[in-house]
Protein 1
Amino acid sequence: MIKGRRHARMVALQALYELDMTRHAPEYVLGCRLKQHPLPRAGAAFAFLLVEGVLDHKRRIDRLIAKLAPEWPVEQIAVIDRNILRIAIFEILYAPDDTPFKVAIDEAVELAKMFGSDSSPRFVNGVLGTLVNRYADQINRKTNRKTNRKTNWKTNRKTDQKSPPDLSNFPPNLMMGENWQN
């Protein structure tokens, strides 16, 4: 059985792949993916976070990929590999959650094994390893910010971070076990 966050990453990867290949709206694409692969509320929220975060930071992430793999122009990298890298880089540098960079890299390599070519896992691991080596200070500052936070979930007050996502307005038709609306 696939764990929740890995399943959410798979759904986000499929959505980003489709968005790269078509001109469909992100909400439509992710909704269709979640219809095919229902997730619990937390998993769906994580998939939305990944897709929205990658799309929000896409230009910066693509420029970074170009620096990390200069012999591979971003537009010539296989679409699946490109989006695996985008997700992992978003998680490592920009995501507000507490995913350790080693976990983000391991998950990216697993996605590459599942969806990419035979050389994809090695390529993804190499690019992300270069990221960690070159930008260790920035990654460590992000990690230190995360470990120094104090959270009071009962009163929904946090210091040094946004509040957790408010799922009360989350589209109910994207949740596991609920009826789908057309």
Note: The CA atoms of residues 84 and 94 lie 15 Å apart.
Protein 2
Amino acid sequence: MESDSPQPRATTSIGHKQLPKNLLITGSSGTGKSTALSQAVEQLGRRRFAGFLSPRVVDDRSDQGWRLEGFNGVSGLLAHASISGRHRLGLLGVDMALFERCIASEFAKITSADVVIIDEIGIIGGWSREFEKFVRRALDHDVPTVAIVRQKSGELSDEVKSRGDVESWTVDRDNRDWISGDIALWVESFDQPTRQS
């Protein structure tokens, strides 16, 4: 079936079960990867999720940072100029205790989840051995995993991108307005045949 969209879609091969069940989302900083993933989660609706989102936040003083929003109870301010500690992203301190609590909570839910969402595999994750275990467990599990992966080289991100059971999509300014729908369709292509009442 031909698409009404004038642009080529990333989902032309959706539905073929030989596709890898792990989808990696990459792209330059600021192209909308986290927004697209969050929108895809909304479109997927009533599913059991494991993992987390990390939306960007801006306070009244325009200090940018990130929240951590786990799907199973642990959320909070992850990176911000007001956070002290030895783990830092430039001027932003990182609450690694919060990160570790979230990962422990989400790890426990992988086996009962319909889909795993990871935002993102990047610098902060590289500071946590438990996160590395979480990522490998999610990618090895038998449900689809969608993960944003840092585009630049890194030990864990390079390992993930080199796996044989992953498919990679790039978010850019041309596709960021519609790729969330494609991400949702990609997930649905795996879970629809097994969802029976």
Note: The chain has five helices and ten strands.
Protein 3
Amino acid sequence: MASSLGVKAGKGLPAERRSDRNRNVRDLRERGSVGGDHLTACAGPGRTQEGSAIIEFLALAVLLLIPAVWFLLAVAQIQSALYAATGAADQAARIYVTSEAAPERAAQHSQHAVETTLADYGINPAQAQITHSCTTDCQNPGDMVRYQVEIRVPLPLVPEFGGWEHSLVTVTASSTALQGE
């Protein structure tokens, strides 16, 4: 039955189409566009494209991964500065109002707490500005003691040189506690 349709057993194509296909493949091979020779034909005489995929991959990886990693580092630094500012301001206010020492000594304890908290988060205390304020003289019960910590977040992987201080953002946190509570 297969022979009545003009199909040879096992080939799947009629004999006329099979010979046209073979002729087309033979023509393409002669021109160098089929098989292993197509790379040479596309690249030109004497040139091949072997290894170009690796170079293209590396170029795209550099162009896409470096900015992505830099962005993640920047976000991590901002988040670290936010946590550090919040924790430092909170600790400074609590230490000041719970200290039984003189106001100057309590302020020193609070300053040390801020520096320790910043160091715990890997932030240089020189990047921070600490502001302390009170409603009156900070000694009377019910006085509001406020600490504000402002941290300048530098650009990641960019060194500071000369007098140029670069900054990605500045984060600020404050905490208020009541004296004598």
Note: The mean pLDDT is 81.
Protein 4
Amino acid sequence: MVRRAAWGWGRALKSALTYATMESAVHSEPRRGILGLSWRQCVALIALGNAFVATYLHLWKIGKAGALACGGGGGCQIVQYSPWSYFFGVDVALIGAIGYATLFVVAVIGSLPRFEDVRGFALAQMALVYPAVLFTLRLKWAEFYKLKTFCPWCAISAVSITVLAVIVTIEWRRLRAAS
């Protein structure tokens, strides 16, 4: 009986992979980004990773995670305990965790075959990413010029949000060209 169940999962996986490759071959306009993923799937993957990082930083700040893995300079602690780590009284890491999680959900739902050409999902991604880029510029300015320190976790987030802005723009241009 166990053998049959394993065979059934293998068959289901093969069927899903065949469907995924057939789906991309049917469309004349390529929806693929990099590594065989659509642009929205790339957004989801990056957002998920950053949601975990932001959640880790928030949990560390409220004392629910162990030691902060930051490197030798101690920049993460300086940034985490600075007044710049709050925005209207809310922890910036928590804002990032919620923002990245929301972006992940929008990207995953927008990646479903029936929604892959719906412009609303691209607009929602832009509405989440572009303000985050401006917010990140503010935070990096404060980190470098006000606090005169460097936080590797903040740098990862800054690079990621910049890459996300590029990917979201590419996705928007793909949808505009298709209509």
Note: The chain has two domains: 1-30, 32-178.
